[in-house]
């Protein structure tokens, strides 16, 4: 099938790779922003938690330590979820890159095979004409 835009396979590959590179950068920038926001939220939560327990006179109790541990666990779960989402997104973009390379190499293979096939047909015609 002819390309309606007249681009070569290498140009199509370059365009596809540029698109996934742009998406990868955007995904990583979004993940960095989300990581910053999560960290800031955690930092703001600690003084609020301490103040709440101090108002009740429980700043030296085991309840405060338990609440701090729960807050830290929640933060760790959220960060792990964010990291997993980033990893999955980057993996999908890598798969897109591999698909682009596969399409490119398939096109190159078809071009080479087509050239060999036409040469073989021409050689057969020449041999037939010579006999």
Description:
With 131 residues, the chain is an all-alpha fold. The protein has one domain (17-130). The protein has two helices and no strands. It has helices at residues 9-55, 62-130. It starts with 8 loop residues before the first helix and ends with a helix. 0% of the residues are buried. The mean pLDDT is 85.
Strand elements, count: 0
Structural class, by secondary structure, is mainly alpha
Question: What does the main sheet amount to?
Answer: none
Shape: rod-shaped
The helicity comes to over 70%
How many domains make up the 3D coordinates? 1
| Helix segment tally | 2
Beta percentage is: under 5%
Radius of gyration: 30 Å
Stretches where pLDDT is under 50 for at least 5 consecutive residues are none
Overall pLDDT level: 85
How far apart are the first and last residues' alpha carbons, in Å?
37 Å
Order of helices and strands: HH
SSE topology:
Blueprint: H1 9-55, H2 62-130
Helix pairs in contact: 1-2
Short description:
By secondary structure, this protein is mostly helical. Helices cover about 90% and strands about 0% of the residues. The protein has one domain.
Keywords:
131 residues, mainly alpha, 2 helices
